[in-house]
Amino acid sequence: MGDFFEYLKSEWSFASAHPELAFAILVIGYGILMIGFFAAFAGPVTWIERRVAGRMQCRIGPNRVGPQGFLQWLADGMKNFLKEDLIPNDADRILFRLAVYPVFAGVFLTFVVLPFGPWIVGADLDVGIVYLLAVTALVVTGIIMSGWASNSKWALLGGIRSAAQMVSYEVAAGMALLTAIIPGGSLSLQGIIEHQGGWPWQWLVFFSPATFVAFFVYFVASLAEGNRTPFDLPEAESELVSGYNTEYSGMRFLFFAFAEWGNLYVIGAVITAVFLGGWRIPGVDLATQTNNLWLQLLGAAIFIAKASILVSVTIWLRWTLPRLRVDQLMMMCWKYFVPIGIGLVVFSLVWQLVAAAVPTWVTGAVSVLLTLAGAALVAGMFWRAWYNIRSGKDTPVYKWLI
Amino acid sequence: MGSVASYVENIKNAAVTIFEGMAVTLSWMFRRPITIQYPDRTPEPVKSMLPGRFRGILEVHIPACTACSACARACPIDVILVETKKHPSGKGRLLTRFDIDISKCMYCGLCTEACPTGCLHHTPVFEASARDIRNLVLHFVDKPVVPYKHKKGTPVPEMPPSGSIVEQLLKPWDAEYVQWTPGEIEVPTEGEAGGAGGKGSSAPREKEGKG
Amino acid sequence: MDSTQSKQSVSDDLMILNMGPQHPSTHGVIRFIITGDGEVMQRAVPHVGYLHRGIEKLAEGMPYPSFVPFTDRVDYLAAMFANHGYALAVERLLGLEVPRRAEYLRVIVSELNRIASHLIGVGAMAMDIGAFTPFLHGIREREKLNDIIEELCGARLTYNYVRVGGVAFDIPAGLDRKILSFLDTFEPLMEEFNRLITVNEILVKRCANVAIIDAETAKSYGLVGPNLRGSGVDWDLRRDLPYSAYPEFDFKVCVGRGVRGTLGDAYDRFVVRVEEMMESVKILRQALAGIPEGDIMAKVPRKLKPPKGEAYAAVESARGELGYHVISDGKDKPYRVKIRAGSFTATSIIEHASKGLMIADLVVLIASLDVIAPEIDR
Question: Which residues of chain B lie closer than 8 angstroms to C69, CB-CB?
């Protein structure tokens, strides 16, 4: 917000006359805008999730409430508003009520550093990534509080398991992020994005084999942090209970769910910022984009689009994969992801030394090769889908596809 | 080296099978869903999409009923109530009551197989919800009739389209319950030789369809 | 959907948990009392009887042919087998010979029902493990089967089709072509199903080496059907105690091989069911190719009065041996009908097999045994 404020001071006389007041108004306005964005994203994401779930299961999703069922989430929200606010008899009343807030705040506070454009960011902290990791730890305290306050052994176990899962996968996620930060050169998200370029081969994901693998490791680790399938045993019908949010109903429950859906966006946004080039536009260099407000907005749109694609992949995974058992989950973290993460960090460090010693065309060639590998992966996925369509003989296919 | 090999094998298996699974679900995004949205967005009315042998709600075409009560005897759960009374002229019987409780019926079809004329048959009608369960007892005889005398080999009186009788009888879902009484037996002015009412002047069952 | 509460046991440190009669899964109304310390269970005791409807007692009050619709409700996911077992038992009492065309029709509908039941069995197992999509794909195939059987006999779930002495209806024109075209589309879709879930590494990790039941335990507890074959015991009533037209068909009996784990684990039972579906397709093709002409019903008197005696007949249902013991005392209503269902013994082994399992594995165990509550309780 600092750069934007400097620009504002030149345009808006009120800003130069009363800088602190104007800055406060700007920041609060941005916060309200972010809450609005959070809500406007979380609601429709459920619509997309249910429609996508329906189509993958060869049925239609909700399509009656509003055009194509778009207002279904509003109806569900209204329903939750009107539900009875239930607190179990022996539950710890204060903690029960209080537990929602760390969970929601932990997710929402990450929006401070999530950038949308060169100037469209809450605060471009120098230690943005560390701030992100720290603030997501708030969610863990909220979950433990909710599990304990529910006065149900089951909710307690679910909450502790969920907390253990989140804490472990933060280590793995941190390692993967570190792998990308080493070439990125800066801990601040804006800095990493500025280091990347608009074209795919300039993205950090295709910079070195280490970052390529780190992309997948970070994606899976952030799925685990967000309690999404295949890691949602603490939450979705784990032993037929709902884990830490069993005893919650109505609006309180909706806040937990809200936080989870908002977290989806945070996952997508962080991956886009660190690995996929953020708000950079292909072919436009940094200075031009910074000076032109329309290009900034275009960058924001590109950022949101990339994050949305990743959110769609998350939803796609949810409806494809079964769940891992909790001990298998923990084993996968500590025996697979953390060692691989450490190896990736070391590889990335070595790669930095190698890249310094080797002519630039070599690193460029590696980037192009990795881009082609990525494109081949995506194309291979579509080819296998096409193979499935072709071999499933009688299922009706859309005419425009054949 | 075995453990390293199995480590790598695990990772490779996981990646490949997850990729394949994702491709399958992705392929379904491009195929049409197979569900039909009942009842308002079906391509044609559901009743016409049902096969001919569909065992829907029962109906009986009374002009072809011989009052033999074979259906009432065949029913395992006593859903059908057939009552006959002596014809006032003294000869033969009158069919005064033919009730089917479709809320209890299990649509097994044993009664339709027992019927000698085929007047009792299943229809493609299946939508019969009612607010009051007593409305689901269908009374097919509103005034007493002489049962049909069936000779083997002769054609049965022509039956209306399957389902039309029961659709007229089914009340709207929120209709109030009105107690039904059997029609009065008219003492005939002229001698109406009632056809010999079927094989069984079966003792009417004591049980109501549904009280 | 809250179905668990926990109370601390006073005497020891074990936790008693109640997996109540209502489950968010399709196995029916069974209750489990689980004793364990947090994660690892010591015992899971099933409490059954919530779905008891007194079917065996009802049989004593109605004539032999009228009981057939009630046998539908013994196992409503695969009702043809239930009809068939009862019909076989009464035919043995009467000494009836069923026409060959009826036998072929019985085999055809039995195998169609086996496919339908296994689709639900493996689909529900996948759903309990967290993959919701394969269940719905299985339901999609099952709907096509329901449509076929609806054209044949008029009902989609409770068929009342296989009667004493034959079958009730003949195949209408064009239905055999419909069944063949269904089979042609079913095989590629099953391969897609396998790509989606059967070889999925996460499912393998959840099911392999979990809930291992070795052959000796399986036999001593009286397991039947895919549960028994999943433990490696090569026993199938269709081949070993043949009935109906099965001797004329060539099919393989699918036995668990310990693929991806130990022999007798949950994954073996899953794979046995998937393979059995493909074998059923083979049998169906042979049967459809060779239906003989003839009657579909033997000459059966209207009022069946079998001579005094008893008969036991069993069919290889989707859940194993579904046996009927019919005792007649000369009247037109049976003296006693006893139904032996495969799910009953499968429920009894849950307590034994649940020692040392984690609670998440209990769900896998119950799902892999393909337990159906109406069969347990009748």
Answer: 76, 106, 108, 110
Contact C197 A322 (CB under 8 A): yes
The nearest CA of chain A is from the CA of B37 a distance in Å of 9
What topology is assigned to B54-169 in CATH?
Alpha-Beta Plaits (3.30.70)
Interface test with A, best of C179, C189, C199 (most A CBs within 10 A): C189
Tell me if chain B has a CB within 8 Å of the CB of C70: yes
Mean pLDDT on C116-133 = 90
Q: Confirm whether C358 is domain-assigned.
A: yes
Report if residue C171 sits inside a domain: yes
**Together in a domain, A96 and A73:** no
Quick check: is C4 in a domain?
no
Tokens encoding B153: 């080999």
Rounded-to-integer distance, Cα B24 and Cα C199, Å: 13
C23 in any annotated domain: no
Q: Are residues A133 and A55 in the same domain?
A: no
Q: Is the pLDDT of residue B153 over 50?
A: yes
**What does the pLDDT average to over A341-350?**
93
Asked if C133 reaches chain B (Cβ–Cβ under 8 Å), the answer is: yes
From C137's Cα to the closest Cα of chain B, the distance in A is 10
Residues A6 and A39 in one domain: yes
Q: pLDDT grade, residue A257 (50/70/90)? A: confident
> What is the pLDDT, as a whole number, of residue C342?
86
Report CB contact under 8 Å: A58, C137: yes
Distance from CA of A56 to the nearest CA of C (A): 7
Confidence category of residue B194, pLDDT binned at 50, 70, 90? very low
**Residue extents of the structural domains in chain B:** 2-34, 54-169
Does residue C200 sit at the B interface (CB-CB below 8 Å)?
yes
| CA nearest to C310, candidates C337, C289, C332 | C337
Contact C177, B2 (CB under 8 A): no
Same domain, A321 and A303: yes
Cα of B120 to nearest chain C Cα, Å:
15
Q: CB of C268 within 8 A of CB of C259?
A: yes
- Indicate the range of A147-151, B56-60, C216-220, C241-245 predicted with least confidence: A147-151
Give the model's confidence band at B204: pLDDT under 50 very low, under 70 low, under 90 confident, else very high: very low
Q: B22, A381: Cβ pair inside 8 Å? A: yes
Is residue A18 located within the same domain as residue A75?
Answer: yes
Whether C201 and chain B come into contact, CB under 8 Å, resolves to yes
- Interface check for C184 against chain A (CB to CB < 8 A): the answer is yes
Using a CB–CB cutoff of 8 Å, tell me whether C363 touches chain A: yes
Task: Say what the pLDDT of residue C220 is.
Answer: 93
Query: How much is the pLDDT for A66?
Result: 83
**C169 and chain B in contact, CB less than 8 A:** yes
For chain A, say whether B8 makes contact (Cβ under 8 Å).
no
Q: Which of A34, A57, A79 is where one domain is finished?
A: A79
Contact yes or no for C339/C56 (Cβ under 8 A)? yes
| Same domain for A92 and A74 | no
Task: Name the residue among C230, C234, C235, C231 with its Cα closest to residue C216.
Answer: C231
Whole-model pTM over 0.90: no
Mean pLDDT for chain A overall = 85
* Residue whose C-alpha is closest to residue B138's, from B47, B75, B60, B56: B60
In a domain, A23, yes or no: yes
Q: Is A239 domain-assigned?
A: yes
ipTM of the complex: 0.85
Using alpha carbons, select from B164, B61, B52, B70 the residue that is nearest to residue B114: B70
More confident residue, A156 or A329: A329
Answer with the residue of higher pLDDT: B41 or C219. Answer: C219
For chain C, the domain total comes to: 1
Is residue A376 predicted with pLDDT exceeding 90? yes
| Domain encompassing residue A18 | 1-79
| Residue A35 domain flag | yes
Q: Each residue of C149-170: pLDDT tens digit?
A: 999 988 888 888 998 988 988 8
Of B24, B34, B108, the CB nearest to C192: B24
